[in-house]
Amino acid sequence: MKFSEYCQYDGLGLAELVRKGEVTPTQLLHTAAQRLEAVNPQLNAVIHTFLTAAEARARKPLPAGPFAGVPFILKDLLDDLAGEPTSLGSAQVRWFPEQNAEIVNRYLKAGLVPFAKSNLPEFGLMITTESKAFGPAHNPWKLGYSTGGSSGGSAAAVAARVVPMASANDGGGSIRFPAACCGVFGLKPSRGRNPTGPLDAEGWDGAIAGHPITLSVRDSAAMLDSLAGPELGAGFAVPAPAPAQSFLTTLDAPLKPLRIGYSDRPMVPAQVSPEAKAALANTVKLLKDLGHHVEEAHPEIDAEQMWQDFMIVISGHTAAKVNQIKAIWGAKVAGSLEPGTLSAAMLGRSFTSADVAQAKEGWHQVRHAMARYLSRYDLLLTPTLIGEPAAHGVIPPSAFESFQMRLGHRLPMGKLLMKSGLLFSLSERVLSRMAFTLMGNVTGLPAMSVPLHWTPNGLPLGSQFVGRMLDERRMLQLARQLEVAQPWFERRPLL
């Protein structure tokens, strides 16, 4: 199959060709592999391939799922595939899992054929994909610019049409942020909607959710049908949708006019660029043209408190992960982790269990604030990004900052850094860019980034919608309406 034909289809479209016998899974895999070979030297979106094993899978009878025979890329974090290495984005970590992550089992049951692992920052901690282990992933729309993170390699591979969708997960914006940077669609489902176990059944206290980044809205809906539902030992057990009420079959159902509040007020201290505000204004106009009631309304959230509470909880999980690596691979490997990771672990060791309990109360307050907001509005609309994707080297710590982090990571300075304001100063380039995405992880609410705007420089900016808990159906229906009104599928980067 020629790439010029392959790139005309989304995942469901390719699967339909397989069902009709017009193409084989092996042919699709070869086309995807050839496309990867052509563009990955420029993009560095993929860090590991396993084509031989994928070919063997493609030649066997595949499950009769909605995506039978479609090539797929897995993120190299949480989405473990038995026998293939997981690196967590780290230079020293190479773990060969003996079992699949539950979400990977569901990917396979849907008929997908994984053949590669995507690039990411170490531990998924950065909002850009520029790890020391694997080097930066390049934005397909402009080389030398960030793909976002932490699912940056997945988003870049989808935007470059290597695959119509790739796995991703989101603990602070890591589906929505790279989807916005790369001009593709990214849905973060409600807490508990999709499996995250068995090893990380409540990742980051429930802040993490997994779902693919896709080219089309219908692929995202069909994947949610395939992935949703409780798993063994789940901390947040959400029932799977009934077949008659699947997200895909109801995607094009008539959508009543929605009441949508919009805000350009960041929920973490940040400066929002004029271009991001222009993108928001364009989306507001589009929604009004479609008949929705849209008005400016800002959630009542303490921005300063929210980022502090998030950092206290997440740094504790990072400290625990570093301890785990030390126990398995030794102190030398743990000590070779990136300075930002070691610094985050130091923060986690500085806070007490009482600090964490109090921070989680802060999470609950944000959830209540959003519940009040969403009792008045069906959705909240914000920019996904505070500005266009950054050039490489802007977001990660400088050489001097890295030196300081490595020098001080053994000292329990977390509380001092927090109280003095130095912590935000050191983390601002990351935290400020999560100004609109972080709330969705703290609350567990579903959120999506829709690619509706490109800057004069040719870089994408997404529009984020946050909905009520478990209201993905209506959100996807709106995304589909926007996709029809202002299509993005045919917009492709010139590679």
UniProtKB/TrEMBL annotation:
GO terms for molecular function: amidase activity. Belongs to the amidase family. It is an enzyme of class 3 (hydrolase). This is Amidase. It comes from the Bacteria. Keywords: Hydrolase. InterPro entries: Amidase (IPR000120), Amidase_CS (IPR020556), Amidase_dom (IPR023631), AS_sf (IPR036928). Residues 28-393 form the Amidase domain. It comes from Simiduia aestuariiviva. PANTHER family: GLUTAMYL-TRNA(GLN) AMIDOTRANSFERASE SUBUNIT A, MITOCHONDRIAL, TRANSAMIDASE. Its EC number is 3.5.1.4.
